Amino acid sequence: MSPLASYRRLLRLAGPAYVAVAFLGRLPLAMSQLGTLLLVSTSTGSYGAGGLAAGALAVANAVTSPLAGALADRVGQRPVVLVQSLLGAALLSLLVVLVGADVATPVLVAAAAAAGASLPQVGPLARVRWRPITDGSGVHQRRLVDAAFSYEGAADEASFALGPALVGVGAVAVSPSGALLLAAGLLAVFGTAFALHPTARRSRAARLAAGVDRAAAARLLTGTVLVLGLAQLLVGMLFGSVQTGATVLATSEGRPGLAGFVHGTLGVGSAVAGLMTAGLPQRIGHELRAWWAACLLLPLSVPLLLVDSLLPLTAVVLVLGCAVAPYMIAVFSLAERVVDPARVGAAMTLLASCTGIGYALGSAVAGRLADTSGHTAAFAVTVTACALAALLTTVARHRLHGAVARADAADRREPVPVL
Length: 419
What we know:
Layout: H1 3-14, H2 16-24, H3 27-44, H4 47-75, H5 77-100, H6 105-118, H7 122-133, H8 141-173, H9 176-196, H10 199-210, H11 212-217, H12 223-252, H13 259-276, H14 286-301, H15 310-321, H16 324-338, H17 344-373, H18 375-409
């Protein structure tokens, strides 16, 4: 089955409405981080304060998302995502009101954290739904699930391209507060639609078949999962530091609204590369794909230390993105292979949370360095994160390969067919 045939089959199985809703439902999370950074830094005049507020939003989301994922494994995604979508939209709107009231920075940071704690992780939860959606596909299911994860990786990256771009449009056309209100509106509409879509019931039925009690008993935090979580933390640092560095450089040129467009190019290259990973031969394991992608991240990130204007920065970020999605797709696919089926929701949200923690760390450190040393110092954080990702995947490559082999041997997943 070719990649194009796999994507067509997935579209037929899920339906165009589901694909659209699941994509639009993840935009608010992508918008809220940059939107908060721009809103708070503009109102306070401090990149450090903006980075702290954006980081607080990301950390709060990272802390609560695994809990929400575990709860969704137990009771189903529908009630969990519905409550998160409505509450998150309300709290994002409250943050805008507080900024307009000129309250103290600690209050803004606390409000950003409250909003982050309520935002649903639509992307990871959408990954959980693909196995039930493709159930009954026979020998092609493994290939379809792999293609679905390639698509989801590309969709995540596209959302982090379009989301910041929408923030940029809102900031230029209206204001940073208008951009954050747009995120709240999208969350209320499409987050709710994702929660209520019929695929949520199929996911719940699959969890019941796996055994609700089993979900509570199955071990989640293994050494392998911790390695994968650290891998995602490092790519989160990449996101946070690139976004902060782009904001600093764009602001220094008098065009802060363009920061979203520049950062969005990271997702453009990443999304294209992500879709292409479905065509890789299955004999190339995901642990090898993660290693190769990580090794590419380092040399592609070094030119960030040399840029001093938006045009070359945009080109460098676009090329850097081509290694990001293959890296993330491999990490999430490895988690899906080695984690007990009853804990997949918790595992997917845990990895997304590690990304959020990394974003917070990268954004806060880069923001602090940028306050004193400018955008180049912020991008030094990016290069450091890429170097650590290459080192981690090199050291852990054989461990990951062994974990997949043990999972297949234990029949926790059907053997991958050679197609």
